[in-house]
Design goal:
It contains eleven helices and ten strands. The chain is α/β, with parallel strands linked by helices. It has a single domain, classed as TIM Barrel (Alpha-Beta Barrel). Helix 4 runs parallel beside helix 5 and helix 10 packs across helix 11. It starts with a strand and ends with a helix. The structure holds manganese (II) ion.
């Protein structure tokens, strides 16, 4: 069973076709949203597709534009088992919106904590240390998606018990492979981050997680079938943690 723990299903040109294909191919998919307003429409992709789960999110790159939707986030949180995409972005383009990003992220984490914790898919571009600091003491399980921080930040995140989702685009680089080899294998999940993430200009699909499995098999020194089983087992352990 393939796992795509971070995918923007609602942003493909034909999301219902992609959802159906995930189901046919048996890909367990976490469909993350970028704004709370997208929750209702995106949740419809679960209908008839038992392997799809939807996450309630407010993307840090949209925080300055969509902070007004934070009340909608709070409204739907009780019905969401997963939260994402949330986080911080300290990159060149978004650093100017840092203050509002931080305000939104803190609000979300406070709500999640009060609600007893959630599994959270987290964006941490150029912000891993800040993300780790903000998550301190918050109930729930953070999954850092497409980790791109330093080795020191990685070891802090590992020490804090975080999980990680890695995809073909990340594993296509030497640094991504090196980082992935340092994560305990029991805390690794696969992702596509499609349709944003691309390989050779083609948006990745949820079933392209198999490309990540190939790379993980190399890192772990096992065959691909075994790597796929390990990731599926990780997902089982993650979802059986009671929050
Ligand atoms: Mn994403």
């Amino acid at each position: 069973m393939l796992v795509d723990m971070h995918c923007h299903l609602d942003l493909y040109p034909k999301p219902f076709d992609v959802a159906k294909e995930c189901n046919l191919r048996g890909v367990y998919t976490l469909s993350v949203t970028t704004t709370p307003k997208a929750w209702g429409g995106t949740k419809k992709l679960e209908v008839g597709n038992p392997r799809i789960r939807t996450a309630l999110g407010l993307h840090p790159q949209l925080a300055h534009d969509r902070y007004g939707e934070i009340e909608i986030f709070d409204h739907f949180l009780s019905e969401a088992r997963y939260v994402g995409e949330i986080g911080l972005d300290g990159g060149r383009e978004y650093k100017k919106h840092w203050a509002v990003q931080l305000k939104v992220f803190r609000h979300i984490l406070n709500s999640v904590d009060k609600a007893g914790g959630r599994i959270m898919s987290i964006h941490s571009i150029a912000s891993v240390s800040a993300v780790i600091n903000e998550l301190k003491g918050i109930a729930g399980i953070p999954i850092l998606h497409w980790f791109s921080g330093s080795k020191a930040e990685l070891s802090r995140a590992i020490d804090q018990g975080f999980w990680f989702s890695v995809g073909p685009a990340m594993l296509n680089s030497k640094k991504g492979m090196e980082i992935s080899s340092l994560i305990p294998s029991g805390r690794v999940l696969t992702e596509s981050d499609g349709p944003f993430a691309k390989i050779e200009n083609t948006p990745l699909m949820p079933w392209d997680s198999c490309m990540a499995i190939k790379r993980l098999a190399l890192i772990w020194g096992v065959d691909e079938g075994e790597a796929e089983d390990m990731v599926a087992q990780n997902l089982k352990s993650l979802t059986s943690i009671s929050l």
